[in-house]
Amino acid sequence: MALAAAQIEQLNTQFKGIPPEEIISWAVKHGQTPVVTTNFRPYEVAILHAVSQVSQDIPVIWCDTGYNTPKTYKHAEELIERLHLNIKLYVPKQTSAHRDAVMGIPQIDDPGHEEFTRQVKLEPFARAMSDFKPDVWFTNLRKGQTALRDSLDILSLSKDGVLKVSPFYHYSDTQLDTYLRKFDLPNEHNYFDPTKVLANRECGLHT
Q: What positions does the domain Phosphoadenosine phosphosulphate reductase occupy (predicted)?
């Protein structure tokens, strides 16, 4: 789906305040190869539920770092079964046990942190995107999460020209809590991202 910057800006104005499912339906109708990405972090259930209500055929790419908590893995399995997600699992080429033995989890100021992030997140993600070659990429990016994300909107372009669609972009945590209660959806707050260190730091997928 090729859109000019002016078209994206106009659509973002039109989509503000529109229910997420309508935005998703529009993107599915106009796209050819949509995907959803997830790591089952807090509030990810919202985008997974909303997309699954429109189409259950869309590939749901899960790049599992191998460092999730047991609760997150149980949460993921519950959602996969409940929402009938078309999960496509991508994992690092090296096991976490092997990496722990030779590298561990480097701190943000450690020279090895960049390579660690590449191994556990960026490489599996790039492999997935190469396999599926999406023109539409559903995400749960929201305003207020990071400085970068504050500069985006409901629709934005990735560095590779893929149309990123974030239907809940203008939602607050309170609004998402209301959405989850409405549909009796579970949330997961016991999530660990070994690449971020700080909650408001980008891991590299959206830069």
A: 34-187
Q: How many CB atoms lie within 10 A of CB 103?
A: 15
d(CA 77, CA 57): 18
> pLDDT digits over 19-31, tens only?
999 999 999 999 9
Provide the token pair at 138.
């559903």
Vertex 168: Cα angle to 133 and 28 (nearest 5): 40
Q: What is the predicted pLDDT for the residue at 1?
A: 62
Task: Single out the residue of 1, 6, 125, 109 nearest to residue 65, CA to CA.
Answer: 125
Q: Give the mean pLDDT of 135-145.
A: 89
Tell me the residue length of the chain.
Answer: 207
Distance from C-alpha of 119 to C-alpha of 146, rounded to nearest angstrom: 23
Q: Are 188 and 42 in contact (CB under 8 A)?
A: yes
Dmax of the chain from CA atoms? 51
Structure confidence at residue 201 (pLDDT): 45
> Exposed, middle or buried by CB within 10 Å (0-12, 13-18, 19+), for 153?
buried
